Amino acid sequence: MVGVPGKYKGCNTCRVRRVKCDNTRPLCKKCTDYGRECGGYERETVFIIGTQDDKGRVGSHPPRNIQQSRAVQSEASTQHATGLEFVAAEPLQPAWHETVLLKSGPNSQLIRFVAQHADLDSAINHSSSSSEAHEVSLSLLDSQPLDVTPTFRKEDFNLKSVCFVSLPEASDDSTVGSDEGQNSSTMYAKEPPWNDMSTLSDAIRELGPGAYQAFPAHHFFARVYRPSAVWASLLNRQPTFLCNPEWTVVPWEHYPRTSLDDLLDVVVLLPSIYSRADHITLLKADADRQLKARELLDDCISIEAQFDIWHSVIQQGIRLPYWVDDPKSASIPFNEPLSFASPLLCLVHVYYWAVLIGFHQCIYALVEVIREPEKKRSSPRTAAGLPPGLDPRKYQPTETRELAALVCRSLDFALRTTAQPDLLVAPTWVVKDFYNRMNAIGSCELESLWVNDFVERREVRGREMSVWLEEKQWIGIRRFG
């Protein structure tokens, strides 16, 4: 029975996840501890009505159905304007594949995926010389480079995007042209700066996770929005709604997952950890503070175990994911650059190592709180100790420096092989910030110079892609945000 008091126990979020709730009021502790948005204990009374139009079917979640219908209406209006409808061909490939086979009526086209940061207000030029009224050209060279510097302010994260497709001209001897010329470009607008996720209430979230199960919405969510939003949440150290279970499952109900998708499922738990750690460090130095740090450290160890499981799956699936490249292409201080079995594996490891830098710094800070000298404590209560088996040396800056070096040794390969250079902006910022902190104690000067040089090379690569994209005519097929 729906809406009957006392019939169901637990908060709405735990009920959806089918897990036991601790029934803490007003918000469930199990949700808040892991950065999930607690749905509270309000029960909605739903009137179930079946009509002839829906053939007797009933729905117990009307808001979600309404949200999905809005997404369908938005896509239908765009397709009506262009006269084109694109559907991904079976069998569906993961969104992180560099190409996707699309069907439009009886025709099929192999589309290469490209994503470029731009200012949408000035990037789209409606072409008066084009034979097709709905074709546009792009002006990208005036767009400023993507800036991921955190602001630590509680503001909305906003990301707008337009998905374009550029199709080859028809020829007499081929129904499907060469790869060059068949390119899909997803453009997302510059939002200076990246902002906090905790109060997000934009069009992306309002549509619900079910709106991102088909092309091009799924590719936008998996390749553009989710990585950007997770990094924004990490760098601003604020929780994100993307850690809710439905956002890690529903968009992939039809598309296969990749190791990068699985990695982000774990990474998205960290912003809540960082936020709690920042709160603990500001507390009065006493035994209560140490106990809170110990509790949070236990949660960190649990998440670290999830990272270890994910990493073991990677190693089991691929015998040699990366190796040392030709030293001739190296530059000081990284004399052993890495090559990878695939561009995706490179991006996966760059993200993994960059995330561990911040994660290990957080654990190291908590260890320092727990091991605080006795004279700094104002309370005589017994302090909490470190968890059994935890080796604090693993999280010291000297060890974290090795992670930063692995990221830098991988960036050149990533830059050569990616069609989304903006995906490298956040990991580069992480290592640059780490080296800047080390510079304060007179270390890592050469590493800082190398990172600054790489930032320039990444921006050059972005301008080269912009020139290439400006040479084509594009058809807008979907807007997001």
From TrEMBL:
<dbReference type="GO" id="GO:0000981">
    <property type="term" value="F:DNA-binding transcription factor activity, RNA polymerase II-specific"/>
</dbReference>
<dbReference type="GO" id="GO:0008270">
    <property type="term" value="F:zinc ion binding"/>
</dbReference>
<feature type="domain" description="Zn(2)-C6 fungal-type">
    <location>
        <begin position="10"/>
        <end position="38"/>
    </location>
</feature>
<dbReference type="InterPro" id="IPR001138">
    <property type="entry name" value="Zn2Cys6_DnaBD"/>
</dbReference>
<dbReference type="Pfam" id="PF00172">
    <property type="entry name" value="Zn_clus"/>
</dbReference>
<keyword id="KW-0539">Nucleus</keyword>
<dbReference type="InterPro" id="IPR036864">
    <property type="entry name" value="Zn2-C6_fun-type_DNA-bd_sf"/>
</dbReference>
<feature type="region of interest" description="Disordered">
    <location>
        <begin position="173"/>
        <end position="192"/>
    </location>
</feature>
<dbReference type="InterPro" id="IPR053178">
    <property type="entry name" value="Osmoadaptation_assoc"/>
</dbReference>
<protein>
    <recommendedName>
        <fullName>Zn(2)-C6 fungal-type domain-containing protein</fullName>
    </recommendedName>
</protein>
<feature type="compositionally biased region" description="Polar residues">
    <location>
        <begin position="173"/>
        <end position="187"/>
    </location>
</feature>
